[in-house]
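Hi P.,

Sorry for the delay on this. The queue was packed all week, but I finally got your sequence through. Input first:
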Amino acid sequence: MENKYTPERRELLLAGGMVLCGFLFWEGGLISPDAALGKFIFTLVLCIFSGSYMWLAGYKQDRQSIAVLVCMALLGGALLNNAGRMEHALTQHALAALYLYWVAKTTGNSLDDKLSMYALGDLVKQGIAVPFSNYGVGPLTLARSTKGRNGRNIFWVCLGIALAIPFMTAAFMLLSEADSSFKILAKNIAENISWRWIEYIVELIIGLPIAFYLVGLVYGNARGDRVERFSKEALSKTASAMAIFPSLIGATMMTCLNIIYIVFLGLQVSHLLQGLPRGMSYSVFARQGFFQLCTVAVINLAIVIAGEIFHKRGGRAARLIKLQMSLMSALTIGLSCTALTKMVMYINVYGLTHKRIYTSFFMVFLIVVFLTIALAQFAKINAGKIIAIAGLVLLLIFNYTCIDRTIASYNIDRYEKGTLPMMDANLLYALGDGAVPELYRLWEKTGDKTVEEILKEMPANDSWACLSRERIVANRIRKEGYLKTKFD
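Then the structure:
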């Protein structure tokens, strides 16, 4: 009796599931910044088929791979919770990275047994090397699924037709412009075609390259097709070969920068403790230089990373560069705290905006990163794990904070208390569906015409792929009589 789960059947299950995922990639609107439910369903289906194939191939989930799945579930819940575009973009990229790492951990194909800086190498290996080195598995599996020579020929013909559709569309458009009779014929054909089914077929076709990529990724890991140049040992040798510059160069460079940062921080502290320069208000002081400080922090991160990679190990100069790296990290933390202090002062004067919240979260993350780097110079800690977990926690807080509603609630509350002199109309126009309940509450209380116009210009988004808790609440407010009856 034939085994139900032969390798051929497993590969066919995987290929069929990934074709569905390729279709959902487009139908679920993963390229749309508003797609919430679409991204969630795509990720769920992807994990179900990937996990099923790996289980049938003999790979079981262990504690680490289950922990990654839990993180993905938390981020998936965040997608369903809010309607913020920036939140969705960051969460989508984080989910993609976690999925790649989950496949590597489940199949035992990760570079390091524990979460560490080698996870960055895993992302490159799993995102590029493995799937593209096994890219042909998907189409060959689908071709083998047709029994006999005639079946395979039919498959290749269908694939040829599918690949020809984009060129046929372009030809129709160009030839319609060249001849009026052909244009009339093309118009009659178009009027008698159900375009929704055509759209489904097109999404299925253009999803095939994505499906083949996903098949190559999961198949390559499950079959043990490791890319040797991405092994832990190979990356360690590469890192050692890149350490070619004398440590004294980096130590001298960092010393010069650290002197400037010490002077700057001294002036900033004196302004906060002893008072500002004559003629400068706290609002001007708060607004001045925040984004420049963010840029300096990012530059310092690049310098520290470069110093860690390229300096030669051993000797007194190597100890000196470690000292300067820890000092630069500490000073950058000071710069970041200064920037955050300025931002708090600025928010107290002008209220919340998207940019002020985004940059504040980013600066908090940089503080964690530089604190970890400073500690890693003198203590044996898993810096990669600490940074990854901190980033995930901040991302979850960022998502579940509901940024749009927080901005609207904070600014409206302060406006009503008289601590915020005016409501910025441009800011209100920039808010998304999460702010609708707060805006509606303000309009119902004050009858403000600007708020009314904003609510009128925020149409309901009924696409299934874009549904989330915040969008459902906003659509209900728009549709179930509240806004409609009062505005009309």
